[in-house]
Amino acid sequence: MRTVRDIMEPAVTVGPDVPVHELADRLVDAGADGAVVVDGGRIVGVATSMDLVARLKTLHPPSVLRLLDLVLPLPATHADEVDRRRVAATTAGELMSPDPHLLGPGALASEAATLMVEQHLSLLPVVDGGALIGVVSRRSILRAIAAHR
Questions:
Q1: Global pTM?
Q2: Looking at residues 78-105, what average pLDDT do you find?
Q3: Domains (range + CATH), the chain
Q4: Using CA atoms, how far apart are residues 55 and 25, in angstroms rounded to an integer?
Q5: Which end is more exposed in the chain, N or C (fewer Cβ atoms within 10 Å of the end residue's Cβ)?
């Protein structure tokens, strides 16, 4: 069985104050799917290429319920709030998903894949003794699948 240590790749890291355009540049330059957001040596979140792409998403107006002559606004869903937050983000800290799932290097690659699929994640930081040592990305998983032939 392959472990996370076997398939992980180097982590791209950014601080929470890095502008989103600089985050995009770093991801493109590194060929990475996301970055681990670190503040004072502590992992505070993950910002992915999909977070950046979602900034261009068309926002839908709030939903309303019409009842006779009464118009009642419906509360925004969690997804609506996340979309609005992403569109308005100007820094990695505003764009990131906070409190990311962390894996130890001894976790199985299948465990990482399961977590990614079930939680809709594209990047998982790998830590050893509290220190960031790499990441598992979709590309890491694909490389492991291709190498397994």
A1: 0.82
A2: 83
A3: 4-61+77-148 (3.10.580.10)
A4: 15
A5: C
